[in-house]
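Quick log. Single chain, no ligands specified.
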Amino acid sequence: MKTDLLITDSLKGIYFPQAGAIDMAHYCQWLLSEIAESQLTVYAESPVTNIQFSDHGWQIVFDPSSGLDKVVDANFQHIIDCRGAAAISFGKLNSELDTALDHLHTTAGQTCQFHSPRLAKQVTQVLCGKVYLIPLADDQFILGSSFEDQASSANSNDLLLKPAIQDQLLEKMNQLLRDSHIPPLTDSELQVIPLQGKRAYRLHAQDRLPLVGPAINAMKLSRDFNKLGQKSLNRDELSHYNQPGYWLNTAYGSHGLLFSMLASQHLVSLICGEISPLNTDISHAIHPARFFIRHLKQK
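-> predicted structure:
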């Protein structure tokens, strides 16, 4: 990791011996700069309506409204499906990720941004508990984040801030302040805080582990499993059922920036046939076919 990505402002974090922290905003900007230097082409806000295999490899079908269907040669030897909550909220694309959708869920997250000169004099470092409280410049704070259950997160297109969720965050913040021996905000101070912040959705699996690795030919695996029986299915031989060139790298929940660094190295090693930085047990634990294999064993 480049040293210039490290946080140097000691007021923006609590540090421990032998631990480290990264300025995530700076890190994301660095990733974007790496894309530019690598001369990669990025198509933003370009809806994809289908992903299909042809004689020329994997083909990405763009929405005609984007105009890219006429100007982009969208045939690739390898394709990595990194859709997040969009995998559920925008429906199926006839892709291999669809086989895992029954085991994926979205969880809403909402933050609150507010102004408090009094609190700014007492909180100069990040506080973490059931919520996190981050001091910013000009006596501003970021408070987050909610983890709303699946029922209340069913509509991932709904990005409107919820007053009840903000009230819950502020209540948890006050408890965090009390636990930290800092006077909480008074009722009058809470009442003047506007409904302000951000709302988004996380994609996560039932077991809270990401989907990283090759997509499988579920029909072929099911057919062979029924013929041979579950004891004859060797996890180390799953590569025989891989869809050639189709890979998944998604469902990180709220840990995408952190976990994806290592998991993406693992994925690159699989694609290039190199040694993975992850051991076999972890590789199996995040394999996209794990839910399908459990389903077969339960038959």
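The first helix runs from residue 24 to 37.
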